[in-house]
Amino acid sequence: MVAWVPDRSGRFGRRPHFGQEELDRECEAIVGTFLRGRYGEARYPISTDDLTVLVERYTSSLDLYADLSAHGGDVEGMTEFFPDELPAVAVSERLSSDPRRENRLRTTLAHELGHAQFHRALWAERFSRGGLFDRADPETKAICKRDSILGAREVDWMEWQAGYVSGAILMPRSVLGRLVAELCVPRGIHAAVHAESPLAAEMVGRVVEAFRVSPDAARIRLLKLDFLTTERRAPTLFG
Fold first, then answer.
1. Does the pLDDT of residue 135 top 60, yes or no?
2. Spatial contact of 168 and 23, defined as CB atoms under 8 Å apart
3. Cβ(120)–Cβ(167) under 8 Å?
4. Cα(170)–Cα(176) distance, rounded to whole angstroms?
5. Fewest CB atoms within 10 Å of the CB: 80, 127, 145, 188?
């Protein structure tokens, strides 16, 4: 059941609210169910091909080689919503055509999946009131710029939610938690690790290797889950 709260941005009358634990739970169920259905078990990292198939299951179309320059030079992904069909996702061809940008492609695919799955009800409500039937209308689209794919501020709730989903799809909380525990518990560490410490760098490196994500994506996910901290007094990690 979606919880709705007033949209203080003014773009919508109200918006869906998801807690971090809810998003983690839903995303792990989405990716875990998908992988077990294909392979009988959920093993990570999810491959880019499998991630693409997963996105296709939640969309009416997926264009991996889109020219999004008309929306701005820094736009790397877009999800478009329709009244009577699943959303359509487009990803900049700059990401799909360059093997060096595969981690960014993966992050963007998971980000757009966040829009397609968690924000579809938002547009469905607006469509039900008879508005936004023009496909040229920018208000039917979630347009995602490079800097907001990972690091959107919470006041930009839509991009923040999609960014959180991206991390939760690629780095499921329970799996990531086991990796952190394997690294920290033998060393007697039961509190969040300072983000500038050598151990934090090692943790980020292991996450990068285990989940095929960029160091920035790994660090942001670890910070959001309080496995890393920028505070002097670190919260307890494992209960």
1. no
2. yes
3. no
4. 10
5. 188
**Helix-helix angle 173-184:215-224, to 10 degrees:** 90
Give per-residue burial for 125-156: e unless 16+ CB within 10 Å, then b: bbbeeeebeeeeeeebbbbbbbebbbebeeee
Contacts 24+ apart (CB under 8 A), 143-146: 143/71, 143/72, 143/75, 143/78, 144/75, 144/76, 144/77, 144/78, 144/79, 144/108, 144/111, 144/112, 144/115, 145/72, 145/74, 145/75, 145/76, 146/74, 146/75, 146/76
Q: Are 212 and 177 in contact (CB under 8 A)?
A: no
What digits encode the pLDDT tens for the residues 27-51? 999 999 999 999 999 999 999 999 9
d(C-alpha 85, C-alpha 79), whole Å: 13
Q: What is the pLDDT of residue 163?
A: 95
Specify the residue for token string 């151990």.
Answer: 199
pLDDT of residue 69: 92
Residue 80: phi, psi to the nearest 5? -110, 135
Q: How far is CA 139 from the centre of its chain?
A: 21
Residue 113 near residue 41, CB atoms below 8 Å: no
Rounded-to-integer distance, Cα 133 and Cα 127, Å: 7
C-alpha to C-alpha distance for 111 and 214, rounded to whole angstroms: 14
Residues 120/126/128/132 CA torsion (nearest 10 deg): -100
Mean pLDDT of 201-218: 98
Retrieve residue 143's tokens: 């347009």
Supply the pTM of this predicted model: 0.91
Q: Which of 17, 23, 18 is nearest to 173 (CA)?
A: 23
